[in-house]
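Methods — Computational structure assignment.
A single polypeptide chain was analysed. Its primary sequence is given first, followed by the predicted tertiary structure written as structure tokens.
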Amino acid sequence: MNLNQVTVPSTDVARAVEFYKTLGLIQIVDALPDYARFECPDGDGTLSVQRVDEVARGHGVVVFFECDDLDERVRALEAAGISFATGPHDEDWLWREARLRDPDGNAICLFRAGINRRFPPWRL
């Protein structure tokens, strides 16, 4: 089994498209106003945005994007007008990460983990 795609809800897919393109994703499907799909610039993963009437609030799913150039990428995104809840910082689980939300409030984590993403010292 391989994770193919994650779909996030949006009340304004066109607005979400601009946000995810600014993050660096590559749009591969344009079915506005209801749907859009993106490829990650590295790897095989895809992310889609689907129109909903209302986005659920509270703690939900967090979408993680690994970036080898995390600190530089965060600086570039901030210069492009993207706001972060937390800037790049080291975590106890051996990842460096920055957190933000898309325009609909969906949680996103940009991180750098290297080998520790799949093979942390405590792996079973």
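Note: The helical segments are 13-23, 70-79.
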